[in-house]
UniProtKB/TrEMBL annotation:
Entry keywords, A to Z: GTP-binding, Hydrolase, Membrane, Nucleotide-binding, Ribonucleoprotein, RNA-binding, Signal recognition particle, Transmembrane, Transmembrane helix
EC number(s) on file: 3.6.5.4
Domain SRP54-type proteins GTP-binding span(s) in chain numbering: 285-298
Similarity comment: Belongs to the GTP-binding SRP family. SRP54 subfamily.
Phylogenetic classification of the source organism: Eukaryota, Viridiplantae, Streptophyta, Embryophyta, Tracheophyta
Taxonomic superkingdom: Eukaryota
Name of the protein this chain belongs to: signal-recognition-particle GTPase
Keyword Ubl conjugation carried by entry: no
Stretches for region Disordered: 397-460
Record organism: Rehmannia glutinosa
Parent-protein residues present: 82 to 541 of 603
Catalytic function, reaction form: GTP + H2O = GDP + phosphate + H(+)
Length: 460
């Protein structure tokens, strides 16, 4: 997805603004990239339309190239597509809150049940798990240990998730297991009863999955759901799921009704096709993500971070955001027309310099520009120093000189005065720190060389 999108940005290099015409090609690339990432066609169509509308309607932001601006627009639309805000888990008004987990085999349901228990426990909630997977071979292993007690056993690391040895944290939550002979719906009924008796805050039910969606699984889930009357029905989706993600989510949502999804295995190299489809096809948000095999690797789903990951252009985004914050659009348009009519004066220069200063230290701003990593800290310090120097020179100019840079260009005497004044103010100041001395030193140097044409040229 990322490389496909890169082609889109590249087509805009050298353009000055986004227009209806010059975004046609890039939009085609974006469309192709999304389709290749298995986002469904209707979703892609709506997305592309939204981005195009935005792109053409957006004015120029000073300092931001059109391709960077398009990256930002695509990012914002991606965030919107994935639900915008973080979607919190919903808790029942009275205990217990019941969470039912569903999904295909191997997507990480059992792992998620334990992770979720730990996650909620950390929030001060008491939890209980119901082991509802009575089919999977691994699940039998899991249940052997549980069966020793038959009813409620302490759930410690590795008990529920067989075969994995990366669990660094003991979950320590009771599990209700009733062997493999009873139907899941009955296990659910008994488990819920037990949870009420123990007055736990949250019950999490793990269920069996199949490799494919089949009627038996859906029927079983429906039955379990009827018994539990869950607060949340969360569909566990493997982030690597490609093409079939949209259909999968749709089917589960239509058949059993989900309240949200959990995206697992985000630590893999998937770039997020599944993440894009969930909300759009079901209207239900992704609430949590699993990004590792350890028990603590579960966290809320942040649409903005996911968008950033999909685009892989976090640097450009924060750069554009900063530029947007700092510069009002009218300012930029005014500036543009000034540059066009060659009326860029020292006042504008000062405004620009200060806007850059407001964006943070120059090294940070430069660091945000792709390809500028090679600039050394010393070079940046030099640049900052000469900017400050120019600033103090502008400060001693007359208003007339500030508005008409050509006055300085035409008159060596004026140039000399400005250079001297800006240096002098510093020299006249009471004896200061070594640093100030150094600064005045460099100013003198500047004064000596001020007659050199290069400096004037920069201001014209
Ligand atoms: P279930 O069949 O849906 O219950 O899936 P499991 O919970 O048994 O998980 C299947 C495999 O995926 C196990 O080896 C897990 O350790 C692994 N797994 C689950 N979640 C994650 C995750 O977020 N990241 C990674 N890398 N592996 C995961
Ligand atoms: Mg399982």
């Amino acid at each position: 997805l990322t490389s496909g999108l890169e082609a889109a940005w590249n087509k805009l290099k050298g353009e000055e603004v986004l227009t209806k015409e010059n975004i046609v090609e890039p939009m085609r690339d974006i469309r192709r990239a999304l389709l290749e990432a298995d986002v469904s066609l209707p979703v892609v169509r709506r997305f592309v339309q939204a981005v195009s509308d935005q792109a053409v309607g957006t004015g120029l932001i000073r300092g931001v190239r059109p391709d960077q601006q398009l990256v930002k627009i695509v990012n914002d639309e991606l965030v919107k597509l994935m639900g915008g805000e973080v979607s919190e888990l919903v808790f029942a008004k009275s205990n217990p809150t019941v969470i039912l987990l569903a999904g295909l085999q191997g997507v990480g349901k059992t792992t998620v049940s334990a992770k979720l228990a730990l996650y909620l426990k950390k929030q001060g909630k008491s939890c209980m798990l119901i082991a509802g997977d009575i089919y999977r071979p691994a699940a039998i292993d899991q249940l052997v240990i549980l069966a020793e007690d038959e009813v409620v056993v302490e759930f410690v690391e590795r008990i529920l998730t067989c075969g994995s040895h990366l669990h660094s944290q003991v979950v320590g939550v009771p599990v209700y297991a009733a062997g493999t002979a009873i139907k899941p719906a009955e296990i659910a009924r008994q488990g819920l009863q037990e949870a009420r008796k123990k007055n736990v805050d949250v019950v999490i039910m793990d269920t069996a999955g199949r490799l494919q969606i089949d009627k038996a699984m859906m029927d079983e889930l429906k039955e379990v759901k009827r018994v539990l009357n869950p607060t949340e029905v969360l569909l566990v989706v493997d982030a690597m799921t490609g093409q079939e993600a949209a259909a999968l989510v749709t089917t589960f949502n239509v058949e059993i009704g989900i309240t949200g999804a959990i995206l697992t295995k985000l630590d893999g190299d998937s770039r997020g096709g599944a993440a894009l489809s969930v909300k759009e096809v079901s209207g239900k948000p992704i609430k949590l993500v699993g990004r590792g095999e350890r028990m603590e690797d579960l966290e809320p789903f942040y649409p903005d971070r996911m968008a950033g990951r999909i685009l892989g252009m976090g640097d450009v985004l924060s750069f554009v955001e900063k530029a947007q914050e700092v510069m009002a659009q009218e300012d930029a348009e005014e500036l543009q027309s000034k540059i066009m009519s060659a009326k860029f004066d020292f006042n504008d220069f000062l405004k620009q310099t200060r806007a850059v200063a407001r964006m943070g230290s120059m090294s940070r701003v430069i660091g945000m520009i792709p390809g500028m990593g090679k600039v050394t800290p010393a070079q940046i310090r030099e640049a900052e120093k000469s900017l400050k120097l120019m600033e103090s020179m502008i400060e001693v100019m007359t208003p007339e000189e500030r508005e008409k840079p050509e006055l300085l260009a035409e008159s060596p005497a004026r140039r000399k005065r400005v250079a001297q004044d800006s240096g002098k103010t510093e020299q006249q100041a009471p004896p200061g720190t070594a640093r100030r001395k150094r600064r005045s030193e460099s100013r003198r140097q500047f004064a000596d060389t001020s007659a050199r044409p290069g400096i004037d040229k920069d201001f014209q």
